[in-house]
Protein backbone atom coordinates (compact mmCIF):
# COMPACT_ATOMS: atom_id res chain seq x y z
CA UNK A 1 0.00 0.00 0.00
CA UNK A 2 1.27 3.43 -0.92
CA UNK A 3 -0.08 6.94 -1.02
CA UNK A 4 0.16 9.39 -3.86
CA UNK A 5 -1.39 12.51 -5.33
CA UNK A 6 -2.82 11.00 -8.50
CA UNK A 7 -3.86 13.15 -11.43
CA UNK A 8 -7.29 12.99 -13.03
CA UNK A 9 -7.04 12.12 -16.74
CA UNK A 10 -10.78 12.24 -17.40
CA UNK A 11 -14.12 12.15 -15.68
CA UNK A 12 -17.37 11.08 -17.35
CA UNK A 13 -20.96 10.91 -16.17
CA UNK A 14 -21.91 7.44 -17.54
CA UNK A 15 -25.41 7.15 -15.99
CA UNK A 16 -27.50 9.27 -13.61
CA UNK A 17 -25.31 9.89 -10.51
CA UNK A 18 -22.68 7.41 -11.76
CA UNK A 19 -19.22 8.61 -12.74
CA UNK A 20 -16.19 7.04 -14.41
CA UNK A 21 -12.94 8.58 -13.28
CA UNK A 22 -9.56 7.79 -14.87
CA UNK A 23 -6.45 8.49 -12.79
CA UNK A 24 -2.76 8.39 -13.55
CA UNK A 25 0.26 8.12 -11.27
CA UNK A 26 3.07 5.86 -10.08
CA UNK A 27 0.55 4.04 -7.90
CA UNK A 28 -0.79 2.24 -10.99
CA UNK A 29 2.40 0.13 -10.91
CA UNK A 30 1.24 -1.31 -7.57
CA UNK A 31 -2.19 -2.29 -8.90
CA UNK A 32 -2.55 -5.88 -10.06
CA UNK A 33 -5.46 -7.64 -8.38
CA UNK A 34 -9.11 -7.12 -9.32
CA UNK A 35 -11.34 -6.56 -6.31
CA UNK A 36 -8.84 -4.34 -4.50
CA UNK A 37 -9.85 -0.77 -3.76
CA UNK A 38 -8.46 2.74 -3.50
CA UNK A 39 -9.02 4.86 -0.40
CA UNK A 40 -9.47 8.42 -1.58
CA UNK A 41 -9.35 11.60 0.46
CA UNK A 42 -12.15 14.05 -0.23
CA UNK A 43 -10.59 17.42 -1.07
CA UNK A 44 -12.63 19.24 1.57
CA UNK A 45 -11.30 20.00 5.04
CA UNK A 46 -14.55 19.16 6.86
CA UNK A 47 -14.85 15.65 5.35
CA UNK A 48 -12.26 13.62 7.19
CA UNK A 49 -12.96 10.06 6.14
CA UNK A 50 -11.54 8.75 2.92
CA UNK A 51 -13.93 7.02 0.52
CA UNK A 52 -13.19 3.40 -0.52
CA UNK A 53 -13.79 2.86 -4.25
CA UNK A 54 -12.96 -0.36 -6.07
CA UNK A 55 -10.75 -0.55 -9.13
CA UNK A 56 -12.77 -1.00 -12.32
CA UNK A 57 -9.81 -1.19 -14.70
CA UNK A 58 -6.03 -1.25 -14.44
CA UNK A 59 -4.11 -0.24 -17.56
CA UNK A 60 -0.37 -0.62 -17.09
CA UNK A 61 0.40 0.30 -20.71
CA UNK A 62 -1.32 3.67 -20.36
CA UNK A 63 -0.28 4.08 -16.72
CA UNK A 64 -3.90 4.65 -15.70
CA UNK A 65 -6.59 3.13 -13.53
CA UNK A 66 -10.34 3.63 -13.69
CA UNK A 67 -12.82 3.83 -10.85
CA UNK A 68 -16.60 4.03 -11.13
CA UNK A 69 -18.61 5.46 -8.27
CA UNK A 70 -22.13 6.61 -7.48
CA UNK A 71 -22.78 9.97 -5.87
CA UNK A 72 -24.25 9.08 -2.49
CA UNK A 73 -23.22 11.98 -0.26
CA UNK A 74 -21.06 15.04 0.09
CA UNK A 75 -17.78 13.17 -0.46
CA UNK A 76 -18.67 11.52 -3.75
CA UNK A 77 -20.51 14.69 -4.86
CA UNK A 78 -17.23 16.51 -4.33
CA UNK A 79 -15.37 13.95 -6.49
CA UNK A 80 -17.95 14.41 -9.24
CA UNK A 81 -17.16 18.12 -9.51
CA UNK A 82 -13.49 17.52 -10.29
CA UNK A 83 -11.99 17.84 -13.76
CA UNK A 84 -8.99 16.51 -15.65
CA UNK A 85 -5.67 17.86 -14.42
CA UNK A 86 -6.82 18.10 -10.81
CA UNK A 87 -5.30 15.80 -8.21
CA UNK A 88 -6.65 13.37 -5.62
CA UNK A 89 -4.87 12.01 -2.56
CA UNK A 90 -5.08 8.24 -3.06
CA UNK A 91 -4.04 5.38 -0.77
CA UNK A 92 -3.88 1.90 -2.17
CA UNK A 93 -4.31 -0.57 -3.55
CA UNK A 94 -5.98 -1.99 -0.43
CA UNK A 95 -7.68 -5.23 0.59
CA UNK A 96 -7.62 -8.78 -0.68
CA UNK A 97 -8.98 -9.04 -4.19
CA UNK A 98 -10.41 -11.93 -6.20
CA UNK A 99 -8.44 -15.19 -6.40
CA UNK A 100 -8.08 -16.24 -10.04
CA UNK A 101 -5.78 -19.22 -9.48
CA UNK A 102 -8.41 -21.94 -9.95
CA UNK A 103 -9.33 -20.78 -13.46
CA UNK A 104 -7.65 -22.20 -16.59
CA UNK A 105 -8.20 -21.79 -20.33
CA UNK A 106 -11.62 -23.02 -21.44
CA UNK A 107 -13.15 -23.05 -17.96
CA UNK A 108 -16.65 -21.66 -17.49
CA UNK A 109 -16.80 -18.83 -14.97
CA UNK A 110 -19.90 -17.10 -13.61
CA UNK A 111 -19.50 -13.41 -12.75
CA UNK A 112 -22.47 -11.91 -10.95
CA UNK A 113 -22.95 -8.27 -10.02
CA UNK A 114 -25.51 -5.69 -9.10
CA UNK A 115 -25.62 -1.89 -9.36
CA UNK A 116 -22.52 -0.18 -8.10
CA UNK A 117 -21.07 -3.62 -7.30
CA UNK A 118 -20.54 -4.16 -11.02
CA UNK A 119 -17.36 -2.04 -11.62
CA UNK A 120 -14.72 -4.35 -10.04
CA UNK A 121 -16.08 -7.21 -12.14
CA UNK A 122 -14.83 -5.46 -15.27
CA UNK A 123 -11.14 -5.72 -14.38
CA UNK A 124 -11.82 -9.24 -13.08
CA UNK A 125 -13.35 -10.13 -16.46
CA UNK A 126 -10.41 -8.63 -18.35
CA UNK A 127 -7.92 -10.75 -16.43
CA UNK A 128 -10.00 -13.93 -16.73
CA UNK A 129 -10.40 -13.31 -20.46
CA UNK A 130 -6.61 -13.17 -20.70
CA UNK A 131 -6.64 -16.64 -19.17
CA UNK A 132 -9.00 -17.63 -22.00
CA UNK A 133 -11.83 -18.59 -19.67
CA UNK A 134 -15.43 -18.66 -20.94
CA UNK A 135 -17.14 -15.87 -19.08
CA UNK A 136 -20.82 -15.57 -18.26
CA UNK A 137 -21.78 -12.21 -16.78
CA UNK A 138 -25.06 -11.77 -14.91
CA UNK A 139 -25.58 -8.11 -14.13
CA UNK A 140 -28.53 -6.56 -12.33
CA UNK A 141 -29.52 -2.91 -12.27
CA UNK A 142 -32.47 -0.96 -10.89
CA UNK A 143 -33.43 0.18 -14.41
CA UNK A 144 -32.09 0.57 -17.95
CA UNK A 145 -31.29 4.21 -17.19
CA UNK A 146 -28.77 3.35 -14.48
CA UNK A 147 -27.17 0.41 -16.28
CA UNK A 148 -23.66 0.85 -17.65
CA UNK A 149 -20.74 -0.93 -19.34
CA UNK A 150 -22.88 -3.54 -21.13
CA UNK A 151 -20.91 -3.15 -24.38
CA UNK A 152 -17.59 -3.38 -22.57
CA UNK A 153 -18.62 -6.58 -20.79
CA UNK A 154 -19.85 -8.01 -24.11
CA UNK A 155 -16.27 -7.79 -25.42
CA UNK A 156 -15.29 -10.22 -22.68
CA UNK A 157 -18.03 -12.85 -22.71
CA UNK A 158 -21.76 -13.58 -22.66
CA UNK A 159 -23.77 -10.94 -20.85
CA UNK A 160 -27.21 -11.27 -19.28
CA UNK A 161 -28.88 -8.22 -17.76
CA UNK A 162 -31.80 -7.95 -15.39
CA UNK A 163 -33.57 -4.84 -14.18
CA UNK A 164 -35.74 -4.47 -11.11
CA UNK A 165 -38.38 -2.49 -13.03
CA UNK A 166 -38.27 -4.60 -16.21
CA UNK A 167 -37.18 -1.63 -18.36
CA UNK A 168 -34.36 -3.71 -19.90
CA UNK A 169 -33.32 -7.35 -20.05
CA UNK A 170 -34.99 -9.84 -17.76
CA UNK A 171 -37.54 -8.42 -15.33
CA UNK A 172 -36.46 -9.13 -11.76
CA UNK A 173 -33.27 -9.54 -9.81
CA UNK A 174 -30.10 -11.40 -10.68
CA UNK A 175 -31.35 -14.57 -8.97
CA UNK A 176 -33.56 -15.17 -12.02
CA UNK A 177 -30.49 -15.02 -14.28
CA UNK A 178 -28.58 -17.35 -11.98
CA UNK A 179 -31.35 -19.95 -12.10
CA UNK A 180 -31.37 -19.84 -15.91
CA UNK A 181 -27.56 -20.00 -16.18
CA UNK A 182 -27.53 -23.10 -13.98
CA UNK A 183 -29.68 -24.78 -16.65
CA UNK A 184 -27.94 -23.38 -19.75
CA UNK A 185 -24.30 -23.78 -18.75
CA UNK A 186 -22.12 -26.45 -17.23
CA UNK A 187 -21.11 -26.18 -13.58
CA UNK A 188 -18.74 -23.18 -13.37
CA UNK A 189 -15.12 -23.65 -12.30
CA UNK A 190 -15.37 -20.44 -10.30
CA UNK A 191 -18.06 -17.96 -9.27
CA UNK A 192 -17.41 -14.32 -8.45
CA UNK A 193 -19.94 -11.82 -7.11
CA UNK A 194 -20.13 -8.22 -5.99
CA UNK A 195 -23.25 -6.29 -5.08
CA UNK A 196 -25.81 -5.59 -2.40
CA UNK A 197 -26.36 -7.94 0.52
CA UNK A 198 -29.43 -9.58 -1.05
CA UNK A 199 -27.46 -10.48 -4.18
CA UNK A 200 -24.55 -11.86 -2.16
CA UNK A 201 -26.90 -13.98 -0.06
CA UNK A 202 -28.51 -15.38 -3.20
CA UNK A 203 -25.09 -16.31 -4.62
CA UNK A 204 -24.02 -17.80 -1.31
CA UNK A 205 -27.20 -19.88 -1.04
CA UNK A 206 -26.58 -21.39 -4.47
CA UNK A 207 -22.80 -21.80 -4.22
CA UNK A 208 -22.15 -22.29 -0.50
CA UNK A 209 -20.35 -25.59 -1.06
CA UNK A 210 -18.58 -24.52 -4.25
CA UNK A 211 -14.78 -24.67 -3.77
CA UNK A 212 -14.13 -21.48 -5.73
CA UNK A 213 -17.02 -19.08 -5.09
CA UNK A 214 -16.07 -15.58 -3.96
CA UNK A 215 -18.11 -12.65 -2.67
CA UNK A 216 -16.93 -9.06 -2.48
CA UNK A 217 -18.53 -7.25 0.45
CA UNK A 218 -19.31 -3.60 0.95
CA UNK A 219 -18.74 -2.03 4.35
CA UNK A 220 -18.51 1.36 5.94
CA UNK A 221 -14.84 2.07 6.43
CA UNK A 222 -12.68 4.55 8.27
CA UNK A 223 -8.96 3.71 8.20
CA UNK A 224 -9.22 1.20 5.33
CA UNK A 225 -6.16 -0.69 6.52
CA UNK A 226 -7.13 -2.88 9.44
CA UNK A 227 -6.51 -0.50 12.34
CA UNK A 228 -9.90 0.84 13.49
CA UNK A 229 -12.40 -2.06 13.35
CA UNK A 230 -15.05 0.15 11.68
CA UNK A 231 -15.68 -2.44 9.01
CA UNK A 232 -15.96 -5.73 10.86
CA UNK A 233 -18.25 -8.60 9.94
CA UNK A 234 -18.67 -11.88 11.78
CA UNK A 235 -16.86 -15.08 10.90
CA UNK A 236 -19.31 -17.78 9.80
CA UNK A 237 -17.17 -20.57 11.19
CA UNK A 238 -16.34 -19.14 14.62
CA UNK A 239 -18.90 -16.87 16.25
CA UNK A 240 -16.29 -15.47 18.64
CA UNK A 241 -14.29 -14.08 15.75
CA UNK A 242 -14.74 -11.00 13.57
CA UNK A 243 -13.14 -10.25 10.23
CA UNK A 244 -12.16 -6.87 8.88
CA UNK A 245 -13.67 -6.23 5.47
CA UNK A 246 -10.99 -3.70 4.51
CA UNK A 247 -8.06 -5.88 5.39
CA UNK A 248 -9.12 -9.56 5.31
CA UNK A 249 -11.68 -8.82 2.57
CA UNK A 250 -13.39 -7.24 0.78
CA UNK A 251 -13.39 -10.58 -1.06
CA UNK A 252 -14.29 -13.67 0.99
CA UNK A 253 -15.11 -17.23 0.01
CA UNK A 254 -18.75 -18.27 0.35
CA UNK A 255 -19.36 -19.59 3.86
CA UNK A 256 -16.47 -17.61 5.33
CA UNK A 257 -18.37 -14.68 6.88
CA UNK A 258 -21.95 -13.91 7.83
CA UNK A 259 -23.50 -11.63 5.25
FE1 LIG B 1 -10.50 0.43 9.80
FE2 LIG B 1 -11.38 -1.66 8.38
S1 LIG B 1 -11.82 0.41 8.06
S2 LIG B 1 -10.27 -1.71 10.25
From TrEMBL:
Gene3D superfamilies: Dihydroorotate dehydrogenase, electron transfer subunit (2.10.240.10), Nucleotide-binding domain of ferredoxin-NADP reductase (FNR) module (3.40.50.80), Translation factors (2.40.30.10). InterPro entries: Cyt_c3_hydrogenase_gsu, Dihydroorotate_DH_ele_sf, Dihydroorotate_DH_Fe-S-bd, Dihydroorotate_DHASE_ETsu, FAD-bd_FR_type, FNR_nucleotide-bd, OxRdtase_FAD/NAD-bd, PyrK_electron_transfer. Residues 1-100 form the FAD-binding FR-type domain. [2Fe-2S] cluster binds at residues 223, 228, 231, 246. One of its GO terms (biological process) is 'de novo' UMP biosynthetic process. The keyword Electron transport applies. CDD domains: DHOD_e_trans. One of its GO terms (molecular function) is oxidoreductase activity. FAD binds at residues 51-54, 68-70, 75-76. Its cofactor is FAD; [2Fe-2S] cluster. Binds 1 FAD per subunit. Pathway: Pyrimidine metabolism; UMP biosynthesis via de novo pathway; orotate from (S)-dihydroorotate (NAD(+) route): step 1/1. Keywords: 2Fe-2S, Electron transport, FAD, Flavoprotein, Iron, Iron-sulfur, Metal-binding, Pyrimidine biosynthesis, Transport. PANTHER family: DIHYDROOROTATE DEHYDROGENASE B (NAD(+)), ELECTRON TRANSFER SUBUNIT (PTHR43513), DIHYDROOROTATE DEHYDROGENASE B (NAD(+)), ELECTRON TRANSFER SUBUNIT-RELATED (PTHR43513:SF3). HAMAP family: DHODB_Fe_S_bind. Responsible for channeling the electrons from the oxidation of dihydroorotate from the FMN redox center in the PyrD type B subunit to the ultimate electron acceptor NAD(+). NCBIfam families: PRK00054.1-2, PRK00054.1-4. Belongs to the PyrK family. Heterotetramer of 2 PyrK and 2 PyrD type B subunits. This is Dihydroorotate dehydrogenase B (NAD(+)), electron transfer subunit. The lineage of its organism: Bacteria, Bacillati, Bacillota, Bacilli, Lactobacillales. The gene is pyrK.
